[in-house]
Amino acid sequence: MNRIAVVIVALFCLCGALHAGTADRLNFLFIVGEDLGPQLGCYGDKNAITPNIDKLASEGALFTRAFTHSPVCAPSRSGLITAQYPTTIGTHHMRSTLLAPPPTFTSLLRKAGYFVAWPGKTDFNFAVPADAFDSTKKWTDREAGKPFFAYINISETHESQIRSDAKRYAENTRRLKPEQRHDPAKMVLPPYYPDTPEVRKDIAHYYDLATAIDYTVGDVLEELEKRGEAQNTVVIFFGDHGWGMPRGKRWVYDSGIRVPLIVRWPGKIQPGSVREDLVSFIDLGATVLSLAGVERNPAMNGNVFLGPAAQQRKYVYAHRDRMDETFDRIRAVRDNRFKYIRNFEPQLPYAQRIAYMDEMPTMKVWRQLNDEKKLSGAQALFFAPSKPREELYDLDADPHEINNIAALPEHSVKLQELSKALDAWIAESKDLGQYPETELIARGLVKNVLDQYAKRKEPGYKVEQK
User: Fold this and answer.
1) Which of 28, 240, 232 has the alpha carbon at shortest distance from 150?
2) CA angle at residue 35 from 85 to 290, to 5 degrees?
3) What distance in Å separates the CA atoms of residue 69 and residue 75, rounded to the nearest whole number?
4) How far apart (Å, rounded) are the C-alpha atoms in residues 299 and 105?
5) pTM of the model
6) How do residues 178-189 score in pLDDT, each as one tens digit?
């Protein structure tokens, strides 16, 4: 056999190893930016410099109404991996430990013959089940011929990195060209933030970090292409919740729950298409199982939003419960235009102190200006001594959710509709937020983590509240 023939045979064998067993079974690749909202070029944000993510959007579908069920990482991720609401299974408090987690959708994929890799963060509010993953380190090493599911977590946009020291910031942004760095003076501020150098710097850092993760997204997609697997892989890019800025992360406003969602499925999704239908994180596990031809656990929630079994949602739901050492209970329901929020503890202020959140320079200067009585209008709302029991927002007219229209007679029908929808969801999902955390501990559902927070003696710690 001559040298050319040997090379051809070798290439044929290599291609066969890459594709064997995958031609009729889809691969799935989740690429996730931590604390990343839709501040991306493909979403029309003129501050954003995200060419790789924008290119991905041009090759697939961009979803404009995608939401997490929880605006903070571990509860959001626990719902994602189990395809059940955290309020149903008991992972709704930030920093708690569920003792007996339900099956994950990844364990069902593994049983069906998939190689499952979850490199990076496995912060679920429960210990990783033994059957959940094949690997938590690499997504590229697998037995030849096996279809794969991989979750690639990119952490540079995390809240902690916005306020990191100069050395860490320089390391995170080392690949940025000078013209890709953002000028704080040119940042556009939400109307509820005071216009200060600290706020502008934090936001500029956030955009720089979004550009930094764009480089990593490009690396992952290039690796997929090099391996010859791009055409048979459904790539799903999203953020785990909204941006890590105050009144974003931890809050059920769109700044905390609205996320970017881009899906590339070659040959099945029209490149450059835009989808305006509602999608919830709870839908992701159900959708992957459906496309993989794997039967899901009947206890799993969620609608399929891709493929022949796709269904349309009327509402998405979200919750906020204890955030680290600070208790609150808030529930929300949103349709295509309006959002209804119910504050179960209206006597508690929005701006309770959370030690980790209060490290952000934006939060520090915002509190300082409030203490000095220098805030007014939308900037002062967050520091009101109490909250209304109900909030209603027209997201088309008021995307920043600062004009509560719940009391206006002309919106009473919509208020009643969404209030009833929330009541139904709370009942159907068996919302555990109605019980004190001490009761969940007594039931043996979650581990007692309250003492460690009580020892910190942070202001606003009110765990006994219902």
Assistant:
1) 28
2) 45
3) 8
4) 11
5) 0.92
6) 999 999 999 999
Selection from 340, 333, 345 nearest residue 436 by Cα: 345
- Strand spans (E) along 38-83: 61-67
> Cα(53)–Cα(41) distance, rounded to whole angstroms?
8
**Which two tokens mark 307?**
């493929």
Name the active-site residue from 13, 15, 42, 73: 73
Closest to 56 in 3D by CA, of 220, 263, 258: 263
Q: CA 319, CA 85: separation in Å to the nearest integer?
A: 9
Examine the pLDDT at 463 and tell me if it is beyond 50: no
Tell how far CA 212 is from the center of its chain: 18
Q: For position 454, what pLDDT does the model report?
A: 60
pLDDT of the residue at 171: 98
- Please, what is the end-to-end C-alpha distance for the chain in angstroms? 78
Could you identify the residue written with the tokens 């626990």? 78
Amino acid at residue number 140: T
Q: Name the phi and psi angles at 149, rounded to 5.
A: -125, 130
How many other CB atoms sit within 10 Å of the CB of residue 273? 13
Q: What is the pLDDT of residues 287-324, one digit of tens each?
A: 999 999 999 999 999 999 999 999 999 999 999 999 99
Alpha-carbon distance values, 427 to 332, 339, 377, 430, 433 (Å): 14, 19, 37, 5, 11
Do 79 and 319 meet the contact criterion of CB atoms below 8 Å apart?
Answer: no
Band of residue 437 on the pLDDT scale cut at 50, 70, 90 = very high
Q: 452 pLDDT band (50/70/90 cuts)?
A: confident
- Per-residue confidence (pLDDT) for residue 421, from 0 to 100: 98
Q: Where are the beta strands (DSSP E) in 118-204?
A: 148-154
73 is catalytic: yes
The encoded tokens of residue 80 equal 């994602």
Mapping DSSP to helix (H, G, I), strand (E, B) and coil, where does residue 393 land?
A: strand
Tokens 């690949």 sit on residue? 175
Residue type, 316: V
Question: 166: burial class by Cβ within 10 Å (0-12, 13-18, 19+)?
Answer: exposed
φ and ψ of 421, to 5 deg: -65, -40
Q: What is the C-alpha separation between 417 and 411, in angstroms, rounded?
A: 10
The structure tokens listed for 422 are 């929330």
Q: Please, which residues bridge with residue 323 across strands? A: 94, 326
Residue-averaged pLDDT of the chain:
92
Most confident of the following: 19-28, 117-126, 405-414: 405-414
Residue 28: φ, ψ to 5°? -135, 130
